[in-house]
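C-alpha cells in:
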C-alpha cells in the first residue's frame, strides 16, 4: 500500500490487493442478502464497546461515566445511515491497518477458495471476519469518523470501495466510531425506520449494549433491542431463532448452526457457557496455529476473543461464549494457563461438546458434521485419552458392508454385524477409496463374509494406533503379514504350502532380494496373483509415504511379497526355466502388487521396459505357433 497524494492532514492511499479482490467478490456473493451489513456493523460496534470496557479495568479514566451504547441514525431524504458507538475507537494507524489491509494469515488460501457460487462464497466471507466491507453492498461511499479513547486526535476514513481511500485529521468531541453509509439507489430501503428497526430486532436483540434508533426530523430516540447479553438470560426465555442469530453474530457465519448447548454451572465454580457446532468448516480449519477458542467474559465483562484454553485443539471448530464469575477481571492468557480451576472447566466444557455430538449423532445432521469435521475429531482419539471411549462412538467410516465411499458406519454398527466368534475389527489403510475397495488384501475376507473398514484419511494411521481396540475387539490391519482370520481351517495347510513351495519361494526371493524382505505363500488372496504386506513391526506404507513427503528420514524397510500359489500367473512363473525370463516375470508380479497397494514404483521406466519385453515375447510366441 503506497501513498499517492498528500496534504498536511489528508492523504490518499490504495487498498491492499487482497482487499480490492475481496470487495468485488463480496458485493457479488452477498448481494442477495444485503441486509446482513447492519448485523456486521453493529457487531463491530459491540466489539469496540467490549474492548473499551476491558481496557478501562486498568485505566478507569478511559470509560468515564458514560454508558456504553450503540446508536443508529437515518436520514431518509439524503439516503444516509450511520452506526455510532462510544467504544474504544481507532488511531490513524489502526484505521489504516484495519480498513486498508487484511493483516491475516491465510488470505491467499481464502481467496483461492472463492468459487463464484453465492451461497458457498457468502459462508467463506463470514468465516474470514471482514464484515465491515459488507457496507459497500448497499453504499456507494462509506465514511468512518473515529477517535481513540484517551487520545485527542480524531481521524476520518472515506472510500467508494473501488481502489482507494482517504485519511484526514478531523475534529471530534467524543471518543468512539461513527460509520456513515451513503446508500445506493437500490439501498434506499435501509433509510426506512421500520425496516431498520426490524433488522435490529432480528440481528442484534441479544447484544449486551443498548442499540437506539433516531430518524432525522424526529425528536424521539428509542432503544430497540433488549440490551441483555443472550447467554445471561434463562434458556426458557430464549427461542430457537434468537440462538441462531446470536451464533451468526458471534461467528460471522451466514448459515445456521447444527447444534448448541446453553448451560449455567453453580457451586464451587460458577460460569455460564453457550457452545455451538457450526454447519461448515472454516477455510483455515487445518491451520493448527490459526486463532481459535471461545469468547471469554468475566462477570459479563469482555476479556478476550479466541480463548483457546477452554477446549482441546481437536474441538477447535466449536464457537461460543464462556462467562466466569470466579476468574479475576485482569485475567490474561498467561494467567489462564496457570489457573487451577481451568482444568476442571476445560474438562466439563469438553464433556458438554462431546455430549452435544453424541446427541447429534442420532439425527440426520451428523452426516453433515462428519463430512466437515470428522477428520479433526479423529485427532481427539490420539490426543485425549480420557475421552477416547466417547470419541470412538462418534467415529464414522466407509466399509465393505456399505458398498460406497460414504463414511457413515460406526464401530457399533460393525460390532453388531460381526460373525460368531469374531474378536477382531478388520481395517485397511489406503490413499483413497478406490484403492482400498479394490485391494487384493480383501479377497479372502470377502470370501469369508468378513467386513472391513476402509480407512483413507491422512490421520487414520495414527487413529488406529491410538484406538487399538473397541469393546474388547482388537483392531487389525489386513495389510500386515500376521493376519489372523476367524475359523481359519487353512492355517496348517498354509504352513505346509510354504514348505511344499520352498524352492519357488527361494528362487523368487533370490531375484527380488534387494526389493523384498521375504516371499511367502498367501492366505489372503483369491483372485490376484500377489500382494505386498508390511511386517508387524514396520510402518505401514501410507504412513511411510506421508512422513517421507514431509521430509522426515525413515529407516529403510522392505515389504513382504505374498503369492497366490493357485493363480495361473504364479503357475507360469513356477514353470519358467529360463532364468532371465523368470527374473523379469518375478519383478512384474512385484510391480503389480505394489501398484495395487497404491505405491509409486521406484523405477517406472524399468517396469515399462519389462512389460514391453513381455508383450513382445507373447506376440512372438503367438506368431510362431
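Residues out:
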Amino acid at each position: 500500500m503506497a501513498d499517492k497524494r498528500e496534504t498536511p492532514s489528508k492523504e490518499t492511499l490504495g487498498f491492499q490487493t487482497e482487499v480490492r479482490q475481496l470487495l468485488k467478490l463480496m458485493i457479488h456473493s452477498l448481494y442477495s442478502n444485503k441486509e446482513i451489513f447492519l448485523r456486521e456493523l453493529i457487531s463491530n460496534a459491540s466489539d469496540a464497546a467490549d474492548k473499551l470496557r476491558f481496557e478501562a479495568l486498568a485505566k478507569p479514566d478511559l470509560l468515564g461515566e458514560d454508558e456504553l451504547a450503540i446508536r443508529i441514525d437515518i436520514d431518509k431524504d439524503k439516503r444516509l445511515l450511520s452506526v455510532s458507538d462510544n467504544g474504544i475507537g481507532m488511531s490513524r494507524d489502526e484505521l489504516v491497518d484495519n480498513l486498508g489491509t487484511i493483516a491475516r494469515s491465510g488470505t491467499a488460501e481464502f481467496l483461492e477458495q472463492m468459487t463464484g457460487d453465492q451461497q458457498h462464497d457468502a459462508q467463506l466471507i463470514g468465516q474470514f471476519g471482514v464484515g465491515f466491507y459488507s457496507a459497500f453492498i448497499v453504499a456507494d461511499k462509506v465514511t468512518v469518523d473515529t477517535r481513540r479513547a484517551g487520545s485527542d486526535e480524531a481521524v476520518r476514513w472515506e472510500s467508494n470501495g473501488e481502489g482507494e481511500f482517504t485519511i484526514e485529521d478531523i475534529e471530534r468531541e467524543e471518543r468512539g466510531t461513527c460509520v456513515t453509509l451513503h446508500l445506493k439507489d437500490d439501498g434506499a430501503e435501509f433509510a426506512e425506520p421500520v425496516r431498520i428497526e426490524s433488522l435490529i430486532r432480528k440481528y442484534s436483540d441479544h447484544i449486551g449494549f443498548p442499540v437506539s434508533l433516531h430518524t432525522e426530523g424526529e425528536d424521539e430516540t428509542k432503544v430497540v433491542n433488549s440490551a441483555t447479553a443472550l447467554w445471561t438470560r434463562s434458556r426458557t426465555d430464549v427461542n430457537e431463532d434468537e440462538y441462531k442469530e446470536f451464533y451468526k453474530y458471534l461467528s460471522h457465519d451466514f448459515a445456521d448452526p447444527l447444534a448448541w448447548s446453553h448451560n449455567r454451572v453453580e457451586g464451587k465454580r460458577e460460569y455460564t457457557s453457550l457452545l455451538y457446532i457450526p454447519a461448515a468448516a472454516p477455510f483455515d480449519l487445518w491451520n493448527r496455529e490459526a486463532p481459535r477458542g471461545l469468547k471469554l467474559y468475566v462477570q459479563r465483562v469482555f476479556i478476550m476473543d479466541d480463548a483457546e484454553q477452554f477446549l482441546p485443539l481437536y474441538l477447535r471448530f466449536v464457537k461460543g461464549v464462556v462467562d466466569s464469575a470466579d476468574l479475576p477481571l485482569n485475567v490474561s492468557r498467561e494467567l489462564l494457563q496457570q489457573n487451577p480451576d481451568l482444568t476442571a472447566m476445560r474438562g466439563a466444557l469438553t464433556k458438554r461438546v462431546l455430549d452435544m455430538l453424541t446427541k447429534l449423532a442420532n439425527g440426520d445432521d451428523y452426516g453433515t458434521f462428519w463430512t466437515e469435521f470428522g477428520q479433526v475429531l479423529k485427532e481427539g482419539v490420539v490426543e485425549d485419552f480420557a475421552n477416547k471411549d466417547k470419541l470412538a462412538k462418534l467415529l464414522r467410516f466407509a466399509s465393505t458392508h456399505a458398498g460406497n465411499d460414504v463414511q457413515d458406519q460406526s464401530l457399533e454398527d460393525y460390532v453388531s454385524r460381526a460373525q460368531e466368534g469374531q474378536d477382531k475389527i478388520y481395517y485397511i489403510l489406503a490413499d483413497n477409496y478406490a484403492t482400498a475397495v479394490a485391494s487384493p488384501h480383501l479377497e479372502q475376507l470377502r470370501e469369508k463374509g468378513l467386513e472391513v473398514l476402509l480407512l483413507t484419511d491422512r490421520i487414520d494411521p495414527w487413529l488406529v494406533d491410538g484406538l487399538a481396540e473397541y469393546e474388547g475387539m482388537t483392531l487389525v490391519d489386513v495389510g500386515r503379514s500376521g493376519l489372523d482370520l476367524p475359523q481359519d481351517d487353512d492355517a496348517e495347510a498354509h504352513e505346509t504350502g510354504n514348505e511344499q513351495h520352498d524352492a519357488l519361494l527361494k528362487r523368487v526371493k533370490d531375484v527380488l532380494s534387494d526389493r523384498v524382505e521375504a516371499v511367502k505363500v498367501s492366505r489372503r488372496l483369491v483372485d490376484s496373483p500377489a500382494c505386498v504386506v508390511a511386517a508387524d513391526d514396520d510402518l505401514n506404507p501410507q504412513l511411510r509415504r506421508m512422513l517421507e513427503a514431509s521430509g522426515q528420514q525413515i529407516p529403510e524397510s522392505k515389504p513382504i511379497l505374498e503369492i497366490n500359489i493357485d493363480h495361473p500367473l504364479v503357475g507360469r512363473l513356477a514353470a519358467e526355466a529360463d532364468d532371465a525370463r523368470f527374473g523379469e516375470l518375478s519383478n512384474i508380479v512385484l510391480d503389480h502388487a505394489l501398484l495395487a497397494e497404491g505405491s509409486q514404483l521406484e523405477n517406472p521406466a524399468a517396469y515399462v521396459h519389462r512389460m514391453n519385453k513381455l508383450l513382445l515375447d507373447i506376440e512372438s510366441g503367438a506368431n510362431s505357433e
